[in-house]
Design brief:
heterotrimer, A alpha/beta, B mainly alpha, C mainly beta, B: Alpha-Beta Plaits, 2 domains, 4 strands, C: Immunoglobulin-like, 4-stranded mixed beta sheet, 12 strands
């Protein structure tokens, strides 16, 4: 029986909400200017999809499930014929709206999520799955329960496979039973295998795009790349696979013309429309050629490897993909993150690492010192940047990035 | 299924057919086996007054269900004395030691066989268990049946597996001690009951004749000793089937032939390398290991991670999602079945 | 090296039918030590019926010398006509030998240690031999032919020890052998 958080006090919260709607500035229209910078015609489909996302027509049988984080397994949702929608958002306007529920120094991503929910943007969702990763996200389970039904998924903070795999498998199995019971569908081995095939196909296409961008980062520029990632949040997976494959087929024919230094971007995720960092990096003449972030690399890069094709074996393989292989700093993954950075830079001969911290996010900030010291030992140029959604510090960031570029270019000679 | 798994299954099936049915396929070679016997491998026959399996009648436990084998040698896998029509090879290495301890053969006639055995184990380690052993192939077939029936696998903790190995060693030592004792002149009268004690309880004695549709000797309740051996053989067979059905290769922790092979695992020619900077600790390598080993997940530096107990099935190398992290080499040179380095293999991993 | 020396056997009074003693004389060879002497002795008819009643005696010590006696021809009534005799002699020239025969002569049973003669054997890729020695009972003399092929199988110890040493060495240096690329 699913527990309801804040049972008794829901009405009080809803009563005290103000009825004024927030002022939405033209972020989305401005962001679509990136469409003109794109050199690929097949990216048009992606930009059109963003526009149409605001008008979701929900039919009688469609079920939309919202979720956060890569900890939540999409394959279980797809196997039950549900449509998963990822809700991480970085929209500045909604941050102000969310201050009503969460005033003060709280992560701006959580604030914008709260703002959206309490202004009925996500009315079409049937269920929201909240994982217990970082502190504010855990508390979202209680904060959102007046407006939506919540399912809470707690993987714990230890990412060691040997100690925890049984606990994770039990967690996912219980989640699967809950889904089957709530939505009355009979999903078994065959549906799970089909869902895993779809996500593995997506992984394969993503890997091809990722490696193409490492070699020639300007054939699919950084804005296109992050727009593709954003569209995968809400689009049907087969459709996304087809569209992405077309983009790859078009892009691999082109040749790279850029001689700018190649950068690895690590740290907090960059989600459309908050492309401030990408703008500044482009103005400072640095190319983002690969990234280690939870929305893109951490979500798509690992395949599901199915050895035991029984139902519990598939669920166990999913836990290994999602939880044991995740790079989220909320679990104890610092060594893995450092290994990934060093290995990617050395293998692909990248020029530097930029570590992007969202202001007020503590887990990413705690990792900065260790990464800086280890990369200094390995003689890899490193720059750590802390920023917010606002536009005030664009000048400052640009200066720092240009100085970083000078360091890289003088290091090369 | 990836390239290594497919080739491993093919090799397993071919070896099963050759080793078990070799007596039928190559039976024309048997007549000239006498003439072809090289002088480097002296023939070992029971001396005057000692017992050998040819003296047992149909109906007793040690009745050999076949005639003479094609090649009188003892490879390092479980090719059984009881293969139909003799099989390709004579017997397993434990049979070799038991028999010759009872017959008190002079060591210099055993040296050629032992040298060949040590050479084969030194080259390939315990890959004989994973790629050639016919009993392992039968067991893998039971695992395949279980997966088709959607029954989840049972994984056993490290303590249980160490206890199994300990039991295997105890059985081996007891069997060899009994074989030595009945070779002494005073105790020779017990030879008819206690000859080849491990063969009497080994599950291969009951499984191998069935390949040739020969009825194995299930029971012999004539005396107290044969009754005990019969019941022990049933218990061990039951454990064998349960271990292969609910676990994957749990039996191989206990098999005495495998335990002897595993002494050579760390120094053998097949080397499994790990490059620790590429590891993302996803745990797939430890999850798919049929023997339940976890060292390849745990170590954090660049080493060779050969372990006693590893049957060299190379599943861990196949499933690792980071290319270049795990690799296999043969005496320092890369293997020809090198893991491919492009991402197309990912979609083949789900069948 | 077979040390059978065939010498001329000068039969002295072998045709004196009344005596039961045959004197033996031969030329001593130009070697030192023991050697085998062989020859044929002839007996009168109806004098001796079985080889148990023939013996060779050392006249210096009056002791019986072990001998191998093979009956070759018989008289019509079953008594021995001729027999081939082999016995060991020594190169000391003071020893004389004689053959005694008759019904009251009794040969002793085997009383000598077998003389181990090294043999040279050849083989044509035939079956290996598991018997270490072949005891050939030749009556009073036991000739043990040593056929143990000692050196042929023992050389396997060398590759065996090399392989075991390599295995142990490689398993102990497992950490040093990983070469990073």
């Amino acid at each position: 029986m699913q527990k309801k958080f804040l049972n008794k006090y829901n009405e009080i919260i809803l009563k005290n909400l103000s009825s004024k709607k927030p002022f939405l500035n033209d972020e989305f229209e401005q962001a679509l200017k990136y469409r003109l910078k794109s050199g690929l015609s097949s990216m048009d489909d992606f930009y059109k999809a963003i526009e149409s996302n605001f008008r979701i027509e929900k039919t009688q049988k469609d079920r939309y499930i919202g979720y956060f984080c890569s900890i939540v397994p999409e394959e279980l949702l797809i196997a039950c014929c549900l449509k998963p929608v990822r809700l991480c958002c970085e929209e500045y306007a909604w941050t102000n709206a969310g201050e009503e529920i969460l005033p003060g120094d709280i992560c701006p991503v959580i604030k914008s999520i709260c703002g959206k929910f309490y202004n009925n943007v996500y009315d079409y969702l049937d269920l929201v799955i909240v994982p217990g990763t970082c502190d504010p996200k855990t508390k979202l389970a209680e904060l959102l329960s007046p407006v939506k039904e919540i399912y809470f998924l707690d993987p714990g903070r230890n990412s060691d496979y040997l100690d925890n795999v049984d606990k994770w498998t039990a967690l996912y199995t219980k989640f699967f039973e809950f889904l089957k019971q709530k939505f009355q569908c009979n999903a078994g081995r065959k549906q799970l295998l089909n869902a895993c095939k779809l996500t593995n196909k997506r992984t394969e296409i993503f890997k091809k795009i990722y490696e193409l961008r490492i070699k020639s980062p300007d054939v699919i520029n950084a804005f296109d790349y992050y727009v593709m990632i954003y569209v995968s949040f809400f689009m049907d997976i087969e459709q996304w696979n087809n569209m992405a494959e077309k983009v790859y087929d078009e892009a691999k024919e082109k040749h790279s013309l850029s001689k700018k230094p190649k950068i690895l971007l690590a740290g907090s995720p960059v989600i459309f429309p908050n492309f401030k960092i990408l703008d500044v990096l482009q103005q400072a003449e640095l190319e983002i050629s690969s990234d280690i972030q939870c929305t893109s690399f951490g979500r798509f890069y690992n395949p599901v490897v199915i050895d035991e094709d029984t139902e519990s074996g598939i669920i166990r393989a999913l836990t290994l993909k999602n939880i044991a292989g995740s790079i989220c700093p909320c679990l104890l993954n610092l060594e893995k993150m450092v290994n990934l950075i060093i290995d990617t830079v050395n293998q692909y001969k990248l020029d530097g690492v930029v570590y992007y911290n969202l202001r007020l996010c503590q887990v990413f900030e705690t990792q900065t010192t260790v990464i800086r010291q280890v990369l200094k030992e390995n003689k890899i140029p490193f720059l750590s940047v802390k920023s917010d959604f606002g536009k005030e510090d664009i000048g400052q960031l640009k200066t720092r990035f240009e100085a970083f570029r000078e360091i890289i270019q003088s290091g090369k000679e | 299924m990836n390239k290594i798994s497919i080739s491993r299954r093919i090799v397993q099936v071919i070896c099963l057919i050759l080793l078990v049915y070799g007596g039928y396929i190559f039976k024309d070679w048997k007549q000239s086996a006498e003439a072809q016997k090289q002088s480097i491998f002296p023939s070992l026959n029971a001396p005057e007054g000692s017992i050998s399996t040819t003296k047992f009648e149909k109906g007793s436990i040690l009745w050999p269900s076949g005639a003479t084998p094609v090649i009188e040698n003892y490879p390092p896998t479980l090719v059984c004395r009881f293969n139909p029509n003799g099989g390709m090879f004579k017997a397993c290495i434990l049979h070799f030691f038991s028999e010759n301890l009872t017959w008190r053969t002079s060591i210099k006639y055993l040296l050629p066989y032992i040298t060949l055995f040590v050479l084969l184990c030194f080259l390939f380690g315990r890959a004989w268990c994973g790629w050639v052993c016919p009993i392992g192939t039968v067991g893998d077939f039971l695992t395949f049946l279980r997966r088709k029936m959607n029954i989840p696998v049972k994984r056993f903790p490290a303590n249980f597996r160490m206890n199994l190995s300990f039991t295997g060693y105890v059985l081996m030592v007891i069997a060899l001690t009994i074989s030595t004792l009945i070779g002494m002149p005073n105790l020779a009268r017990y030879q008819c009951y206690w000859f080849l004690p491990y063969c009497q309880i080994c599950p291969a004695r009951l499984i191998c004749p069935m390949f040739g549709l020969i009825k194995p000797n299930w029971k012999d309740f004539s005396t107290g000793i044969t009754t005990t051996f019969t019941i022990l053989a049933w218990i061990v067979l039951g454990f064998f089937i349960a271990a292969f059905y609910w676990g994957r290769r749990v039996w191989c922790h206990m098999c005495p032939v495998g335990l002897i092979n595993s002494w050579f695992n760390k120094g053998c020619g097949i080397e499994l390398h790990k490059k620790a900077v590429k590891c993302i600790k996803c745990g797939y390598c430890a999850d798919v290991c049929p023997m339940g080993l976890t060292k390849m997940y745990e170590i954090d530096k660049d080493t060779i991670y050969n372990q006693t107990g590893c049957i060299m099935c190379m599943r861990c190398i196949e499933v690792c999602p980071r290319k270049g992290c795990l690799s296999v080499k043969f005496f320092g040179k890369k293997f020809f079945l090198r893991r491919k380095t492009d991402a197309e293999k990912v979609s083949q991993q789900v069948q | 090296m077979k040390k059978f020396i065939f010498l001329l056997f000068l039969c002295g009074c072998s045709f004196l039918f009344c005596s039961e003693k045959i004197d033996i004389s031969f030329e001593y060879p130009d070697i030192n030590g023991d050697f085998y002497v062989s020859g044929t002795a002839f007996f009168p008819p109806s004098s001796v019926f079985s080889s148990d009643h023939i013996l060779v005696m050392d006249m210096a010590t009056k002791k019986e010398v072990p001998s191998k006696i093979t009956v070759s021809e018989k008289w019509p009534d079953g008594s021995i006509l001729s027999a081939e005799i082999i016995f060991p002699a020594n190169t000391s020239k003071k020893i004389h030998y004689a053959i005694f025969y008759g019904n009251e002569i009794k040969r002793s049973k085997i009383f000598s240690e077998p003389a181990v003669l090294p043999t040279v054997d050849f083989f044509t890729g035939g079956t290996g031999r598991t018997a270490e020695n072949i005891d050939v009972n030749v009556g009073q003399i036991n000739v043990r032919v040593d056929k143990s092929i000692s050196i042929r199988y023992w050389w396997y110890v060398l590759p065996l020890l090399v392989l075991i040493f390599l295995t142990v060495y490689r398993s102990l240096t497992i950490n040093r052998r990983h070469k990073s690329e």
